[in-house]
Amino acid sequence: MIPTLSQCLKIMDEYKMLDNxxxxxxxxxxxxxxxxxxxxxxxxxxSMEKVIAGSLLHDIGKTEGLKTGKDHVKIxxxxxxKKGFYEIxxxxxxxxxxxxxxxxxxYTEKEIIYYSDKRVNHDKIVSLEERLKYIIERYSxxxxxxxxxxxxxxxxxxxxxxxxxxxLPFTPSELPELAQKVVFDPEKxxxxxx
Length: 194
Prior knowledge:
- By secondary structure, the protein is mainly alpha-helical.
- The chain contains ten helices and four strands.
- The chain has one domain: Hypothetical protein af1432 (Orthogonal Bundle), CATH 1.10.3210.
- The strands form two sheets. The protein has a two-stranded antiparallel sheet. A two-stranded antiparallel ribbon has the order 3-4.
């Protein structure tokens, strides 16, 4: 089962998602919606419903993770699994580190959510380089092994970016401006172009 946008917002409230994490998730959803919309026009076999739900709920375990120190990805997967959102749990499981990537395979919702998350720092769309700098400062804390793994993950994200944008009629640098035309309307439970 795939939760609707309205259901996702209720789940965010149910799990007391912090406002800053909710704001981040909404911007990630706008980026994902933008990319998925154009890929669908190009004939990609992806589900917009999965993209939206996966983007909104990708950090559903973050608030608890910050309080307990546990892995927010595992917490998010557990939450979605308990609710019967197995397809969304699968997307959440790889939003931090994409386990399987093939440049020549069809596009996937996982790639879109993974990439979109890397482009949003707090609630601002930034370049991969800006996000990488922030992630290194925040999480490596001078540990060269951790920094190495973060850099490896972002090298993969660059490959994902190249794959996604070979079919898109805009460049990665145009993403922030275009995403401003995506309207997220929680009252009506929809996301749309303006």
